[in-house]
Amino acid sequence: MRVVYICATMALGLILGLPSSRATAQEANTAPPLFTATPTVLLRSPDPTKLAEFYLALGMKEGRRNEFGVIIYLENGQGSLEILKMDLNRKPGGPKTTRKQQGVVAIFEVTDQVELVRRAKEAGATLVERWTSSERGHSIYYVGDWENNIFGFTPRYHNPKIKVP
């Protein structure tokens, strides 16, 4: 009776797509990653061409332009920033004065924070805020553009659990 119960339980698990506990442990080390690419950051802007100038001044590289906006790549083709034309019936959000306000803040790893902050200020950054981790001792510089988008820039390899190319 016990063998029938175990077989029935395993069969039900297979029908429902549930792996056995032994398979789960084995597959955990060999399963393909869920996320397989560097993320694309998408911004909406009333004037994508003008806003792209700010990010190009930081050292990002232009990929292409079309009637919908501008696609910018990070160095070595790692990740992208797409600045698209916002709907004509929408208005930009209000100013952000700190990284702690509502909204998404994307953080990029960079090799030279000081140079990036210099470029951001030169390009007209509206916010430059430095935060230093009390645990790890590294700093993240938060930089805002004139359309209230905020990005963080941290030293490369700041998190040993993140694999980098």
Mean pLDDT rating: 74
Sequence of strands across the biggest β-sheet? 1-4-3-2
N-to-C span: 54 Å
- The CATH level-2 architecture of the largest domain is identified as Roll
Structural class: alpha/beta
Q: Quick one: overall form? A: globular
From the 3D structure, determine the CATH topology of the largest domain. Answer: 2,3-Dihydroxybiphenyl 1,2-Dioxygenase, domain 1
Low-confidence stretches: 1-18
Q: What gyration radius follows from the Cα positions, in whole Å? A: 23 Å
Element order: H for helix, E for strand: HHEHEEEEHEEE
Total strands: the figure is: 8
Q: In what range is the share of β-strand residues?
A: 25-35%
CATH superfamily of the largest domain: 2,3-Dihydroxybiphenyl 1,2-Dioxygenase, domain 1
- Biggest β-sheet description: 4 strands, mixed
**Portion of residues in helices?**
25-40%
Short description:
This protein is an alpha/beta fold and 165 residues long.
